[in-house]
Design goal:
Layout (H helix, E strand, L loop, with lengths): L3 H19 L7 H8 L3 H7 L3 H26 L6 H30 L1 H19 L5 H19 L7 H14 L5
Helix pairs in contact: 1-2, 2-3, 4-5, 4-6, 5-6, 5-7
Length: 182
Amino acid sequence: MESKASQKCRLILQTAIQIILENDFNALTLDAVAKQAGISKGGLLYHFPNKESLIKGLAQFVFEELYVNFDQFAEKDSLESGKWTRALIEASKTDLEQNAELNVGIFAASYLDPDLANDISKGYQSILTKLENDGIDRVTATIIRLALDGLYYSKMLNIAPLEKERQDEVFQQLFAMTEKKE
């Protein structure tokens, strides 16, 4: 069972995400989060003493969610070969559909904070290790990972992002690539 402090922290983070997704990253202020979450600013400051710590908390929260989804998608996959790669594709697809605007801010925050970037990199490395030993061609798994990275960067940096239909076609092709064995 989650403690009251953990519940409040989760409420604050979910509210911050909602503000970013409904508006944009610039709309994220401590006052806006406290007001929309229905808590005092002092209550918010107890968990996140400044906007920087809130953004760090958001980054950790979002990436933990990605990792949890990654594990859950892999658990549901009945075909052992390629299941981790398919899980990354599915988790990335879900994340891109739900958190695109949020990812822009998280990317910016991680760029400015080497410790946060290092934590994110370590978590991602654990995913890549699973892909390396996934029972499909390692180069194919790497190509899939790089294609996913490209989808993220294209969308996050707004550099020729794909229309939804084309993005869905790319995801279908990536899933098909996991069916090939070493």
